[in-house]
């Protein structure tokens, strides 16, 4: 049996389902603050349960982010900023996959359902992981920040090179998850670059690193949900 990939595996639908699970986390964070100043923000968040597109998610999260920033609730604002980055990544990935599909669709005509991930999504996500990892590697190796921390430079380069050089998608995902876990310990990274001496280069490095953490986390979540969707289709 051949498999209509675009009909069965809708990446935007997958991303929207991810959001419906993640919005509950944001909901709880707002409620935990127990601050009446956030009543408007909470209502805005409730409206997000009804969104039907990635663009709507991003624009609504941006409004909430701006409101939190205006209220000087920066810890929550940063969290919402990271979710904006995640759904910007999802939106870009969806568009990239459409382009990838158009360029390669003649090769996908006779793919069996059991090979859908390995023959279509694995090469695509392999390229996505390499793109984001290489971009981050270029950024950190042209930054003055890591000249003061050879240890951190070595660790980050080792992670990035392990990801890029490994062509086995399973191993690549494994290294990407490990890299994400390392980047998630932001306090450790801050300690290694001596943040007491704040510079514009250090701030840019930290921003790039936070974005890379969000990208690696988002990539692995997306792949997991794509595989889950394929397995569900295969079982039907």
Give the uncertain stretches in residue-range form. none
In this structure, how is the largest beta sheet organized?
none
Count, helices: 10
Mean pLDDT, all residues: 90
Our Rg estimate from Cα atoms comes to 20 Å
Provide the succession of SSEs: HHHHHHHHHH
How many individual β-strands? 0
Structural class per helix/strand content? mainly alpha
* Total domain modules: 2
Rough outline:
flat
How much strand content do the residues show?
A: under 5%
Distance between the termini: 13 Å
Q: Portion of residues in helices?
A: over 70%
What is this structure, in a nutshell?
The protein is built from ten helices and no strands.
Structural overview:
This protein is mainly alpha-helical and 236 residues long. It has two domains: 1-111; 113-236. Helix content is 78%, strand content 0%. The protein has ten helices and no strands. It has helices at 5-8, 11-33, 39-47, 54-70, 74-104, 116-141, 150-165, 169-184, 186-192, 200-235. The chain is flat. The chain starts with a helix and ends with a helix. The mean pLDDT is 90.
